[in-house]
Amino acid sequence: MNREYMIVHSLEDLAETAAALWYKFSTEAVISHGHFSVALSGGSTPRHLFRKLSQNSHDFPWKNTKIFQVDERHVIRTHEDSNFRMISDELLSGIKIPPQNIYSIPVNSTVEKDAEKYSELLSDYFQNRNSEYTFDLLLLGLGSDGHTASLFPDDPALEITDRQAVHVYKNEIMHDRISITFPVINNAKNIIFLISGFDKSEPAFNVIKQLDTSLPAGKISHKGDNLIYLLDESAAALF
Hints:
By secondary structure, this protein is an alpha/beta fold. Helix 2 links the parallel strand 2 and strand 3. The protein has one domain: 3-Layer(aba) Sandwich (Rossmann fold). The protein is built from six helices and ten strands. It has a seven-stranded parallel sheet, covered by helices on one side. It has a three-stranded antiparallel sheet with strand order 4-8-7.
């Protein structure tokens, strides 16, 4: 397994580098087995990547791409905090992808039932995929508290290994969430962390350089090909 980090000047450079890696992994996957599966995170950092992909959509094999979500706040799709709304606005609206190739996290029932539905959806997909890997590419972020996906410090969800997705109880401000679990993360073929901003510099240093396994992002035990951390200069301030 290749583990590396790359430091770029700006958030725009980070998006450009991530788009190039997306192109590489997507074309390799389509050549290898006919389609490319990717799971997307929300947040402000990937927004720039999604815009760049949308603006250069003709270069990518969208008709052979299957898009999933890493995590979601349990809010309606039109809510301003919805990850799917952001992904739809910034990426999906600008590309030609078959609607049946989009696998969003359900938010129509209770958070427990919707997490179970998404876990079953992923289980069925992975079984039919007939591969040692879950996704061809997983895009993750890093929180200032060291969380990744919606797996937060000291949360019981960190210990879940018998499900593909799990509900995460938060509060009225942060919203309850649904997140993929570590077994799904660990078995992705390629993982890219998108990390920007000085507030991420301490957890980034601890996870990448210190190999701090006390933080959720440091608990990843990747079994795939590439684990790549992309950082802008602010996030890499302590390196």
